[in-house]
Amino acid sequence: KGNCLDNSPMENFFSLLKQEVYHGQVFHSYEELERTIVTFIDYYNHRRIKRKLDWMSPIDYRKEIQNAA
What we know:
62% helix; Transposase_IS3/IS150/IS904; globular; Integrase core domain-containing protein; mainly alpha; RNaseH-like_sf; Integrase_cat-core
């Protein structure tokens, strides 16, 4: 059985998605919403730097860790 901390990263991601994408937006089709979410996921993984990841994007941080191993 999991605990409440297991879901923390996803709760954080969805909170950011709501704040940075959904807030104040009106989507006129499911396809428009889907494109917007896919674009945000790409941005989040490849270009959005995070202080706790030593100012790297999640993808760059993972590559750095894998290369160090």
